[in-house]
């Protein structure tokens, strides 16, 4: 294949301008992305995953009431000075450190949909391929989901989405792929549809919150009309790239928690707490006792 669709992926977009209505009242004054799973906010899991995959520049698409997400990655001088004065380790703050200049925020003034949020980052993305992380989908595994995708990108280039299989009756809440040839964890993508009716869904493989896209998608988003749910859908513009550029899906070897829903959030909290070397045994004992 030519090198046209193979430039390295250095930039990532984190759309965090949604309203988080499914988590009200918790999300009235606190962004959904700062809700902690055990002791790290959701956004931290996504940034850690990005860093592991070699991402250097972090582009947050924010909106009103979302400034605290950006502050999470600031140097907290008073906090650090006080902790140091008290002889406390600053290590818990290490993941929050981003090289000065490498965190960029753009505003999405009105939450018109995910496609519109991504388009708001166009000036920062320029003519480079880029990753997208939806932080409320917590991808848990080692290597992380984006690292697995970058490894696949090194082989096939072009555009990639992460997918997983769900029971057919659940597909109507998601973007769904029409699969072509399968080669290990890689599936060729022949079509994409957002929130299809069960009877019309081309498969039960849903797109799960991680993308590597070529910059041409920005031009398509520019004129993208409203789609499912009256929102400007990223899926609709991605679908137009199929046939013009390579497009594959990667089945993530790991677990995905939908932390945008209450059940998924509780599941993530429990699964990660059980898996933590510093907490697992105690949490297991506590859970056993609770369940009788
Ligand atoms: P969701 O569909 O989960 O929407 O967005 P939401 O507003 O965050 O939450 P609910 O459904 O009201 O509870 C998926 C991702 O896209 C971002 C969200 O922040 C989330 O990361 N998003 C969505 C935007 O940044 N802007 C939008 O206009 C829509």
From TrEMBL:
Keywords, sorted A to Z:
Nucleotidyltransferase, Transferase
User: Which residue ranges does the record assign to the Nucleotidyl transferase domain?
Assistant: 16-271
Database matches in Gene3D superfamilies = Spore Coat Polysaccharide Biosynthesis Protein SpsA, Chain A
Instruction: Name the catalysed reactions.
Output: alpha-D-glucose 1-phosphate + UTP + H(+) = UDP-alpha-D-glucose + diphosphate
Instruction: Please verify whether the record's keywords include Transit peptide.
Output: no
Q: Return one Gene Ontology term, BP aspect.
A: UDP-alpha-D-glucose metabolic process
Q: Name one Pfam family in it.
A: NTP_transferase
Tree of life domain: Bacteria
Look up keyword Cytoplasm and say if it applies. Answer: no
SUPFAM superfamilies (alphabetical): Nucleotide-diphospho-sugar transferases
A single Gene Ontology molecular function, please?
UTP:glucose-1-phosphate uridylyltransferase activity
Which EC numbers does the record give?
2.7.7.9
Tell me which family the UniProt entry assigns to this protein. Belongs to the UDPGP type 2 family.
What name does UniProt use for this protein? UTP--glucose-1-phosphate uridylyltransferase
Tell me which species this is from. Answer: Novosphingobium silvae
């Amino acid at each position: 294949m030519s090198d046209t669709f193979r430039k390295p992926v250095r930039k990532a977009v984190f759309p965090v301008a949604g309203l988080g209505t499914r988590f009200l009242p918790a999300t009235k004054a606190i962004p959904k992305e700062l809700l902690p799973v055990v002791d790290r906010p959701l956004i931290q899991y996504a940034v850690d995953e990005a860093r592991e995959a070699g991402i250097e520049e972090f582009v947050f698409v924010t909106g009103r009431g979302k400034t605290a997400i950006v502050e999470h990655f600031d140097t907290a001088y008073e906090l650090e000075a006080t902790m140091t004065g008290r002889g406390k380790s600053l290590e818990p703050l290490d993941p929050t450190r981003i090289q000065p200049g490498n965190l960029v925020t753009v505003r999405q003034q009105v939450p018109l949909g995910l496609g519109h949020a991504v388009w708001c980052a166009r000036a920062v993305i320029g003519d480079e391929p880029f990753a997208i992380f939806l932080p409320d989908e917590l991808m848990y595994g080692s290597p992380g989901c984006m690292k697995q995708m970058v490894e696949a990108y090194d082989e096939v280039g072009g555009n990639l989405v992460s997918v997983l299989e769900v029971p057919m009756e659940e597909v109507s809440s998601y973007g769904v792929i029409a699969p072509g040839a399968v080669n290990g964890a890689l599936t060729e993508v022949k079509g994409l549809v957002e929130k299809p009716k069960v009877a019309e869904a081309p498969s039960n493989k849903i797109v799960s919150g991680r993308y590597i896209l070529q910059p041409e998608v920005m031009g398509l988003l520019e004129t993208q009309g409203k789609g499912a749910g009256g929102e400007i859908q990223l899926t609709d513009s991605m679908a137009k790239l199929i046939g013009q550029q390579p497009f594959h899906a990667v089945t993530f070897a790991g677990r995905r928690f939908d932390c945008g829903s209450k059940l998924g959030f509780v599941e993530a909290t429990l699964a990660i707490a059980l898996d933590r070397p510093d907490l697992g045994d105690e949490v297991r004992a506590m859970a056993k006792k609770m369940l009788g």
